[in-house]
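Hi everyone, sorry if this is the wrong subforum. Our group has a chain we'd like a structural model of before ordering constructs, and none of us has done structure prediction before. Sequence below.
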Amino acid sequence: MRLRAQGLQGAVGLLDSLAARRGRAPDLPAHLLVGIEGEEAAYFYLLRKGYIVVARRWSAGNHPGDLDLVAWQGQLLCIIEVKTRSARDQTPAEAAIDLHKRNLLRRLARQYVRQLPTETAPEVRFDAISVYLVPGRPPEFLHFESAFRWRETRADRFA
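Answer:
Right subforum, don't worry. Here is the predicted structure as tokens:
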């Protein structure tokens, strides 16, 4: 599985560079391009770890925002928020997942689970992956499993 993910990642990278040379690179602001690159790197990171990624940038349509990655780890459904930085001297990437963002992700996760073709809802875990794409260095990943829960106590908010 690991070699297959590496081969696929190499092929996608090659296609991206060919598109950029032919003038077909996305016309987006730099910070959005970094975010997309980080999500792609996190996708391949999860594949190498044995996750089965079933959705990327999933949107409910009737709620703002999206779920960056949705993956299965065995019977556990993982909702994964990816935060990317191009330098290590900034605030840690995972710090950007504030209460508002966590509540948005919970709403979207409920919508996602409702549309699954199962009678009972699976167990859900909320993860965060910080991706550091520092030029000249290989990508660095910090994976926070169970970064937050369905419900928060007051103590959770100030931890």
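For your construct planning: The first strand starts at residue 52 and ends at 58. DSSP finds four helices and five strands in the chain.
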